[in-house]
Design goal:
With about 80 residues, this protein is of the alpha+beta class. It has helices at about 15-20, 55-60, and strands spanning about 30-35, 40-45.
Length: about 80
């Protein structure tokens, strides 16, 4: 797949790629240039921050925490 650099220095990311990567207008990118001449665009993804360690773990696993159904447990050490 190829694209062209415009006179204004803009590059169009093809719709197929935008859809697959779920890119929206206004998305920010990091530009990485390699010594071999390669140029990489990496989308900047917003960081998800959660209130608790458990919520972070659940977010990483793709699960959703529903506080009203969560059971609190005490642990004796």
């Amino acid at each position: 797949m190829t694209t062209t650099l415009s006179a204004k220095g803009q590059v169009v990311i093809p719709q197929k790629v935008r859809n697959r990567q779920k890119l929206k207008p206004g998305a920010d990118f990091i530009i990485i240039t390699r010594t071999n001449g390669d140029i990489w665009l990496r989308p900047v993804k917003p960081h998800r921050r959660h209130a608790t360690f458990a919520e972070n773990l659940l977010a990483l696993s793709g699960l959703e925490l529903k506080p009203e159904k969560a059971v609190a447990r005490e642990v004796d050490l």
